[in-house]
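Blackboard transcription, Thursday session:
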Amino acid sequence: MCGTCGCGEDDHITYRIPGEVNLTHVHTHTHDGLTHSHEHAHHHHDHNHPEAHQHTHEHEHGHSHTHTVTLEQNILSKNELIAERNRGYFEGSQVLALNLVSSPGSGKTTLLERTIAELGKKIDCTVIEGDQQTMNDAERIQKAGAPVVQINTGNGCHLDALMVNKAMKQLELKRKSILFIENVGNLVCPSLFDLGESRRVVIISVTEGDDKPAKYPTMFETAQLCIINKTDLLPYVDFDLDKVKAAAARVNPRLEFISLSAKTGEGLQEWYNWLQKLHS
Amino acid sequence: MAIFVTKILVMHELSIAVNIVELVEEAARSQQAENVSKVVLEIGTLSGIEFDALTFAMTEAVKGSLLQKAEIVYDIIQAVGVCEECCHEFPTDDYFTVCPVCNSMHTSFIKGKELKIKSIDLVTND
Ligand SMILES: Nc1nc2c(ncn2[C@@H]2O[C@H](COP(=O)(O)OP(=O)(O)OP(=O)(O)O)[C@@H](O)[C@H]2O)c(=O)[nH]1
Ligand SMILES: [Mg+2]
Ligand SMILES: [Zn+2]
Ligand SMILES: [Zn+2]
Ligand SMILES: [Zn+2]
Ligand SMILES: [Zn+2]
Ligand SMILES: [Zn+2]
Ligand SMILES: [Zn+2]
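(Written on the board underneath:)
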């Protein structure tokens, strides 16, 4: 029970480290079978907070009236529910699911083709391809030797958890396999949509300019690994590796980095090691 | 190229808008509401949402729904960082800010990531 407002509710949640801010927490009450929520200020150092019980409706029924209902609902809650179902499935079948996000043309499909050809001998690899149009990438993956489903999103610029859920039902995911999900090339939207993946991998290529982490911080903030691809082109472009790493580490101090060339194979062993460590 | 980028932003917020309409309609139907007269959203400045694109997308998404005539209120939540070393709190517009008091790099957010439907006003005949 909340000792200060006496609501009898235990499950109020506050988010904070010890300190000084007034947080708001929410209690749910039931009136006439209708659930209402209300909030009151909550100070996390002491509990001398003022009550603020505001119920914004009257209980005259039998006529049309307007009722305020507090939802406090995450707009992406539907996606998050399905994402958690996907995640549970992946965990139960020990599938390592990776969500690969990047700008268009960073080399995701090329990296996958090579990974399938090389690591695919040891570990079963399966791919879900997300593109607005065309089957091109799925055809490349199939040629490389992995089972693949292509999702064409039309105008949609990101995959969501339901799309992945539907796509994986068309694949026979083997136990202890790796599922690569190549998201639609776009550094903005996919960062908001959890697919239920085990890890999120953001890929940038050295031809893109080194201000990507500053321009698209959410993508770097939500990823666990950053691959810097096309290192074979480093001599020809103005791309400062250290500057990019420093900028990305500012928004996400836990981010790991692997520099590689999907074309020449330089650095690929480090990527395979990263995968095998997570897979085992 | 510029057109392409604009299109991506609009589409992205459009799917957010469609999510909002779906969730509100579900809540409204579960309470036998005739329609929805008001929707209050909470959007953090670091939520990843382009505000102008969302307001535009909402005008499209509400068409033909129970929200068609609803007033949409956007509560923009200014991001607030907190220092994990000295507990100082500061408003910020950046995904990364050094603590302005003690210069610590260990800062996190206590506000600004909100992407929430806060409340809805339902019109019912009972
Ligand atoms: N020089 C060089 N070129 C590369 C490398 N990796 C990929 N490319 C080239 O970059 C171009 C795009 O590669 P893709 O693998 O199709 O990139 P993608 O990220 O899958 O592209 P989308 O699916 O369209 O977003 C192709 O012309 C590749 O040959 C690399 O390491 N070095
Ligand atoms: Mg591709
Ligand atoms: Zn309390
Ligand atoms: Zn109370
Ligand atoms: Zn504090
Ligand atoms: Zn009532
Ligand atoms: Zn999108
Ligand atoms: Zn500090």
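Lecturer's comment: Residues 77-92 of chain A form the longest helix (16 residues).
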